[in-house]
Write a structure and sequence with these properties.
single chain; mainly alpha; Arc Repressor Mutant, subunit A; 3-stranded antiparallel beta sheet; 5 strands
């Protein structure tokens, strides 16, 4: 596996695929399949705020870009089950002079993902945090740290974070110790524009 993609994410490079993903229902469907495994359109519908027929349409759209696929049939073989192709996905904005469409598509997808991340964080504060026992609550929360680094240094930081997280992402469920629970890691890397920087120190 490429060391720059230790988590085995699917690489989304087609601007049309980015545009397809920049939709709240499709992102919700893909996230649900990645986190909880195969499901039918009927099972997904109430969780993503759509009717079964609309969920099915979005699933076919995602399949057209290779993001989901048919899963092994369940007990009810009359219903089509779907699964995510990979545990996660990643993308980056093209940088070429003729890549305006790709950059616009990447911005649209980034915006939708930020909105989804904000919503997930708000739900956690309102619904989950009050139910956590003290040990888990103490380990939760967020940090907002500004740093001053070169592009190569930022890439090294991201690589090191993925190196640390990868064994837990890829671990077989049978190897998990007792007392585990799902934990959402939201990682934002937000380089500032040069005009936003102060006198050479992190804010």
């Amino acid at each position: 596996m490429d060391s720059s993609n230790r988590l085995g994410d699917i690489e989304v490079t087609d601007p049309k695929a980015m545009r397809a993903l920049a939709h709240p229902v499709r992102l919700a469907i893909l996230e649900r399949l990645q986190r909880h495994g195969p499901a039918t359109a009927t099972q997904l519908a109430p969780e993503v705020g759509a009717t079964p027929s609309v969920a099915s349409w979005h699933l076919r759209h995602l399949a057209g870009f290779g993001l989901v696929r048919d899963a092994e049939p369940g007990p009810d073989r009359r219903q089509r089950r779907w699964e995510a192709v990979a545990r996660g996905f990643r993308f980056e904005a093209p940088v070429g002079p003729d890549d305006g469409e790709g950059r616009a598509a990447a911005r649209a997808l980034s915006r939708e993902m930020f909105l989804r991340g904000e919503s997930a964080a708000n739900r956690w504060v309102d619904d989950t945090a009050p139910l956590l026992d003290p040990d888990w609550l103490r380990l939760s929360g967020l940090a907002n740290t500004g740093i001053v680094v070169s592009a190569d240094e930022l890439a090294a930081i991201e690589e090191e974070m993925e190196r640390i997280v990868a064994p837990y992402v890829l671990r077989d469920p049978s190897a998990r110790p007792a007392g585990v629970r799902g934990v959402r890691l939201l990682r934002y890397f937000l380089p500032e524009h040069i005009e936003e920087q102060s006198s050479g120190t992190a804010s």
